[in-house]
Amino acid sequence: MGDPIALDSGLMGRAGLQSPWLIPGERAAIIDPGPANRAVEVDRQLHEHGVEERGAIVLTHIHFDHAGGAAELATLNPGAKIYVHPKVAGLLVDPTGLNRAVASVWGEATGELFGFPKPAPQGSVVAVAEGDAIELGGGRSLEVVETPGHTRAHLAFLDRSSDSIFCGDAVAIQMGDVPAVRPSTPPSDYGRDSTEASIERLRGVGLGRLLLPHFGEAQSDPNTMFDLALESLARWHEAFEELEAGPDAAAELLARAEGEIDPAIQERFEMVNPGWLNLAGLEGESRRLAAAEG
User: Fold this and answer.
1) Rounded CA gap, 151 and 190, in Å?
2) Closest CA to 257 of 154, 180, 148, 164
3) Which CATH architecture has domain 5-229?
């Protein structure tokens, strides 16, 4: 069976920021195809790899940098199915509310950075949840694992044929050829406890490869990567708890949480998952917890 292949969507016009994963074979699958404004480029790369028909477009979650191009790819490949968490399946059919919500976070630059998703073709969206399997033919399948935390409607996929976990943003971001990682804690429904539980859930799977969307295969073995992710998450929360509100809060958070990281790697982190976005998610979780206690 074919090994997973890391493509490059060219997110934000840069190489090395977001990697859709191609699983070649009888029913080719692409996992997290990238943003809407890069869908045609990703489709071109698939043709370069000899994949003429995509049977499965598989989404770990519906954030624009991962899933924005799904509907466009399905339109380019009639008959392809889009697999997604049931809580957000309707947002692929009618992305109006999703587009509005994302634009409220990223502002006027949203269209330039990501493009806006189109409605998915009628009948193309399939909801999948814990315990389901996406059949790819030839005895190969993707097992569905619920991994909330980065967002509540987040899935990971297990490909036992290649000993691989496609983890989306459930674990951490790792850019370049160094082991440094950054957690991804965006608004509006990030949760620390569920993130930590999802990381431990994936650790318990026992597979040997961790395949990331940001970017490529993890530089460390899965257990080491899980440890790094949990340590990084703890540092960000500790830094946030010591933070004072103000116009420089995001910069101060970065300095406290990542003061020792190579500036070149930090620059790439900032493109994919800027400090202000993590701060917004940490603040949102803090408000929810305070409201629940009060």
Assistant:
1) 5
2) 180
3) 4-Layer Sandwich (3.60)
